[in-house]
Amino acid sequence: MSSFPSVPVFDAVAPLQAQVAAWRAGQERLVLVPTMGALHAGHLALMARARTIGTRVVASIFVNPTQFGPNEDFSRYPRNTEADLALLAQAGVDAAYLPEASAMYPAGFSTRIEVAEVSEGLCGAVRPGHFSGVATVVTKLLNQVQPDVALFGEKDFQQLQVIRRAVRDLDIPVSIEGVPTLREPDGLALSSRNRYLGPQERAQAPRLHAVLARIAEGLVAGKPADPLVAQGRAALEAAGFGPVQYLEVRDADSLAPVPDVSGGPVRVLAAAYLGTTRLIDNVAAG
């Protein structure tokens, strides 16, 4: 164990679990906030929420190689450990867990978790193996940290539902809580990948949320999904997005495709490129 500002930093499971055991002996309530680093205000909102529902907060930083495809941005994914730890110190986190890939996936590692149904379609269709990597690493983190609650942002809504399903199906004793997406004043969802955007692309980027919000408004007004989605796709392409990987209306729980909001709450979800930057977002309706 080492320390940076006032945040104890753990890079191995045994000392981390010794600390967790000490907290447990004191009847502490432990909250885990898993991240891939490159922290921003959205992550800090998760930390702030964690402080309100627990007495101890652990934040993990691990850029998980198994959830990146061969042509994705693993090698260039932003990394700044020193800045991240300074932000965690400011957020009042009790411990930072920074495992090495060689420890998370030692030689001979051969287990992967597959979550059917909620992982199908959307990002699951365009990023093969992504959600298996997510489910596997999150399960490992939950087993290693053993929190009472784990927090995930709703911006990655399909990821949130995959994790909820894995935890339910595998009887992992933890509560999974989604935290609403934090946005810039112009509506752009905060994301570590936003730093890839050039000035013109940054000016165009809020159109993604605006289109999703317009579709959600139409759904709430009783309009069918298909024409709203077709109009939304055309609007995104006109605004400079492309390719639009998906723009869909899904049941908020099962993520099954739905034609409208008559069956209950839905999510409008999209993934689209703006230049070389892939942006995702979603909006609730119904």
Topology:
Blueprint: E1 2-4, E2 7-10, H1 13-25, E3 30-35, H2 41-53, E4 56-61, H3 81-91, E5 95-97, H4 101-104, H5 123-126, H6 130-145, E6 149-153, H7 157-169, E7 175-179, H8 199-204, H9 207-220, H10 225-238, E8 244-251, E9 266-274, E10 277-285
Parallel strand pairs: 2-5, 3-4, 3-6, 4-5, 6-7
Antiparallel strand pairs: 1-2, 8-9, 9-10
Helix pairs in contact: 6-7, 9-10
Strand order of the largest sheet: 1-2-5-4-3-6-7
Structural class: alpha/beta
Number of strands: 10
| Helix-strand pattern | EEHEHEHEHHHEHEHHHEEE
- In CATH, the architecture of the largest domain is 3-Layer(aba) Sandwich
Task: Fill in the CATH topology of the largest domain.
Answer: Rossmann fold
Give the low-pLDDT segments: none
Strand share of the residues? 15-25%
CATH class descriptor name of the largest domain: Alpha Beta
Helicity range of the residues? Answer: 25-40%
Q: TL;DR?
A:
With about 290 residues, the protein is an alpha/beta fold. The protein has ten helices and ten strands. A seven-stranded mixed β-sheet has the order 1-2-5-4-3-6-7, sandwiched between helices.
Describe the structure.
With 286 residues, this protein is an alpha/beta fold. The chain folds into two domains: 7-179, Rossmann fold, CATH 3.40.50.620; 192-285, Pantoate--beta-alanine Ligase, Chain: A,domain 2 (2-Layer Sandwich), CATH 3.30.1300. Helices cover 38% and strands 20% of the residues. The protein contains ten helices and ten strands. The chain has a seven-stranded mixed beta sheet, with helices on both faces. A three-stranded antiparallel beta sheet has the order 8-9-10, covered by helices on one side. α6 packs across α7 and α9 (207-220) runs antiparallel to α10. The longest helix has 16 residues, at 130-145. The termini are far apart. 39% of the residues are buried. The model has no long low-confidence stretch (mean pLDDT 96).
